[in-house]
Write a structure and sequence with these properties.
alpha+beta, four-stranded antiparallel beta sheet, rod-shaped, five-stranded antiparallel beta sheet, 252 residues, 13 strands, 4 helices
């Protein structure tokens, strides 16, 4: 838990995140993470965790922290400012962003962040006081970590699975949906065009049929007109013949 300039801070306590229920709606999940208990960091998710120790920083001491090297190379991000101001008392909480396509697991009681403490410049308020005696021992840099000098070595320790962002698959899914929507729109447009052509063909056929009926009606009318004219001529001829016969009978 100790390095030359920092110490490990364990995770444990309250955990909050949002999951989805059976209807797909967000559901708040709140639980306590005990020692040895597993917490899953799902892909493309944010989980709020609590650091186990209660901090009581004096007025002359500031603290900074960051995730463990393993989690950094996993692609996990800590979404909080790394500075803890002097005088802070309490427990720290922080959001963990897993923006990869992998699910990761952390366990209660394991070191999640490494914290280093910085002593501030003297203050007049502290003058004349007696400083507490120092205690502890010097911690050298671990020799085993000197052998882990390449990027491949850090990534191999972080995860056995490929570490990639979850955003490109989402973009590919959106692009696929857009292509499917475009394809569906083209199909609808084609069907609409075919339907429009069918309507036009039907209208043209109806017009042709109507024109044929009108033309046939015109022919029938003309034929009847000719027949009427012929009958009128016959009637006129009969009248003329009758008139002339009457004149012949009345002549002395």
């Amino acid at each position: 838990m100790l390095k030359p300039a920092s110490c490990g801070i364990k995770v444990g306590g309250e955990v909050i995140f949002w999951d989805t229920d059976r209807k797909g709606k967000p559901k708040k999940v709140k639980r306590q993470l005990a020692h040895g208990e597993e917490l899953k960091l799902k892909q493309n998710a944010i989980v709020y965790v609590t650091l186990e120790p209660i901090l009581r920083l004096p007025d002359y001491m500031a603290a900074r922290f960051n995730l463990t090297i393993r989690d950094i190379y996993r692609g996990v991000l800590v979404g909080t400012g790394p500075l803890v101001d002097p005088g802070f008392q309490g427990r720290l909480s922080l959001p963990l962003h897993n923006l990869t396509v992998n699910d990761y697991r952390i366990y209660g009681g394991e070191p999640l962040v490494w914290m280093e403490f910085t002593k501030l410049s003297p203050n007049d308020r502290w003058a004349g006081g007696t400083s507490l005696p120092r205690s502890g021992h010097y911690v050298e840099f671990p020799q085993r970590k000197l052998k882990r000098g390449t990027l491949e070595a850090y990534l191999a320790r972080a995860s056995d699975e490929p570490i990639t962002s979850s955003i490109p698959p989402l973009l590919r899914g959106a692009e696929k949906s857009a292509r499917n929507a475009k394809r569906s729109a083209n199909v609808v447009a084609f069907v609409s065009f075919v339907a429009a052509v069918a309507v036009v063909v039907g209208v043209v056929a109806a017009l042709v049929s109507i024109y044929g009926l009108v033309d046939s009606s015109n022919d029938s009318r003309n034929q009847l007109t000719r027949q009427v004219d012929a009958l009128e001529h016959q009637v006129e001829a009969l009248r003329t013949s009758r008139t002339e016969g009457a004149r012949v009978r009345t002549t002395p």
